[in-house]
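User: Before I run my own analysis I want an independent prediction to cross-check against. Here's the chain; please return only the structure tokens and, at the end, one sentence I can use as a sanity check.
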Amino acid sequence: MDTIQSTKITQELLISILKEQQEAFMLQDRGLERQVLCEVKNVIDSPLILIITGLRRVGKSTLLSQIANKYLENNYYFVNFEDERLINFTVDNFDLLYETLISLFGEKTFFLFDEIQNVPEWERFVRRLHDQGYKFIITGSNASLLSQELGTRLTGRSIRIDLFPFSFAEYLDFKKVGVVETSALTTKEKGILLKLTTEYIRAGGIPDALKYPQLPIHNTLYDDVLYRDIVARYRIANVKSLKELAFYLISNITTQISYNRLKGSLKLGSINTVKKYIDYLENSWLFFVINKYAYSVKEQQIAAKKIYSIDTGLIKSVGFSFSENQGRLLENLVFLELRRKTQDIYYYKTANNHEVDFFLPKDNVAIQVAQHLDHGSTRERELRSLIELSAEQENRPQLYIITLRDKETIKVGDVEVEVIPLYEWLLKDWYVGEW
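Assistant: Structure tokens:
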């Protein structure tokens, strides 16, 4: 009872919190400008609610600061609901919050709400004030909770932007390396980009982990997601099994997984439990699951899945036996770049059971990923799968092999495969469907 009384939401408490938060927000280091900032302007000028979602510590609060500084001209309120003093804040406290904000800062147009999913039924307040003409920019670390709440009361009123760890271009910006035109690279420039690509694969793109490489940022982040975003939020009793599942997945990225096999090997009780836990991990942005491409939805559902992680640095720090597994990290990195642009991503099995890493049916693009094509057997394997896929599609897709350094065009009969170095592919200003 004492704890509850001490954290009761009062105007006096709100005044203290809001003043501190506003001051800290305005003094916050805005870091390097994120690429998605250019997408934000059009949304701000529209009546839509902007939802920014992504992993913890991926830079959502920093992006909010960049938006406020660049576009809002002090015409906003900022509230961070991750503040532990707001742990008992409920939807019924929003009117008091609004009253306090006006009394402190005057009337503003924009509400910037950070980590809003911590307040159940927050969408009721947002909808009411949105109907009155106010604008909202909201962040959250749980994609599913935001989607459910938006779907119930805010359908058609919002647009979502997913924020990922630093892209390769942002990583180069962080390293203070100018992005070069990749169509005419010198030998020296190729060598420098190859070195930076290799470093990026190992380090990943979590901003704080890059700023403070001496600190165990990845491990702390991983534990925070498991315990704060999943165990506490969903009241998981079997914490040991959840941890074992998450560790298995991060140690086996890019591989095919079977819910049935996971149930047996990890003693998780039922397939539904496995699926539920993986959904929690995916909604909290630790992992992505992709399906096998098939015309039948039922076949997609029952076929093995492939698993990818949100960050290669996280994989290196937390996963098991990744010291020599650069090929899988390379594939994970390619997936992340694809996922920044589209969710329409599958793996493909040919009629001869040969696998293609990525197939994007809407854009008619197929991609294989390999460290290099130095060995004849590797070259033959990657080409064989792509050629078989091409023959099975009514409209021949664009075919790519992405490697660390190789660049060539391979022709097999009337089929053409473009081999492209990872650094060049990552720096292409490409949009899905316009390669």
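Sanity check: Residues 202-427 form a domain with the Arc Repressor Mutant, subunit A fold (CATH 1.10.10.10).
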